[in-house]
Design a protein that fits this description.
It is a single chain. The chain has about 290 residues and is of the alpha+beta class. The chain has two domains: about 180 residues, Vaccinia Virus protein VP39 (Rossmann fold); about 90 residues, Quinohemoprotein amine dehydrogenase alpha subunit, domain 2 (Lipocalin). The radius of gyration is 22 Å and the shape is elongated. The two termini are about 25 Å apart. Bound molecules: S-adenosylmethionine.
Amino acid sequence: MTSSCSALLFVAATLFNGSLYAADIERTGGPYVPTPQAVVDAMLDFAKVGPKDFVIDLGSGDGRIVLTAAQRYSARGQGFDIDPELVGQSNAEAHKRGLADRVSFMQQDVLQARIDPATVVTLYLLPGMMQNLQAKFMRELKPGTRIVSHDFPFGDWKPDRETSVDVPEKYGSPGQWKSTLFYWVVPARVQGVWQVSAPALGSEPLALALQQQYQVLEGSTNAGGKRVPLAGGKVDAEQVAFRLALPAGTYEFKGVVDGDRMRGEATQGGRAVRWTAVRSQTAPAEAR
Ligand SMILES: C[S@@+](CC[C@H](N)C(=O)[O-])C[C@H]1O[C@@H](n2cnc3c(N)ncnc32)[C@H](O)[C@@H]1O
């Protein structure tokens, strides 16, 4: 699955961890191996980066992803890297290209970085660090933030999309000449118990218990004296969708999440009814 650059990243990481620079800085995300420019472009295209975006590259190396986002896609952005030389080089390059009013680079561990301004996060970090970052992303990124990773997926957070990219820089060299890109959209956190009101479906609100595993929703309500499991539940940014087989018929619920409130329409056989919901209980466990 990994390209030859990522194989190189693994080999370099082994050298670092083995002996070479182990006493130096702890580079848990891996050493510096740049993403080839064709892959940088593909990552930014995959995330549909544009002038309204703020792109954060975690482990920004020589700054190429954020610099390209500003120069070719008119975005703003920030890079974080633990290596002070790379950070200095990136800021110097931003000045040289006249981009310093829109991008900046900071020496900081990615786990400490302030990431909530991001609309897009880019990554080329080893799997252990990808695993470490999952919980931070779910806690700190806004729903709807797009994440693109070069070659390394998360653990149990399945990508929304995946693609492979030709890497012309590698033509003729041993190993694969392709990189894999993984893409996720941060879902709204909807875990908990919700009181769903839909006057057209009954005067009493339905207590809907939702369990969330990233983009996937499970749960149930009680209706007509029976437990009704939720089917086809998913969260895409702030949009929720699920199906409930209620006594009045099977309804497709679609709605928008806004903090502890949701609202939308439920349809059955071409008939649409409005619904609203209020979260009455947040689940004790952190939603994933
Ligand atoms: C594989 S390079 C990727 C560079 C750049 N994002 C790119 O794609 O060209 C990984 C970078 O992450 C940085 N890094 C590794 N662990 C880090 C950590 N814990 N905090 C900040 N930066 C880290 C390294 O110094 C290196 O520059």
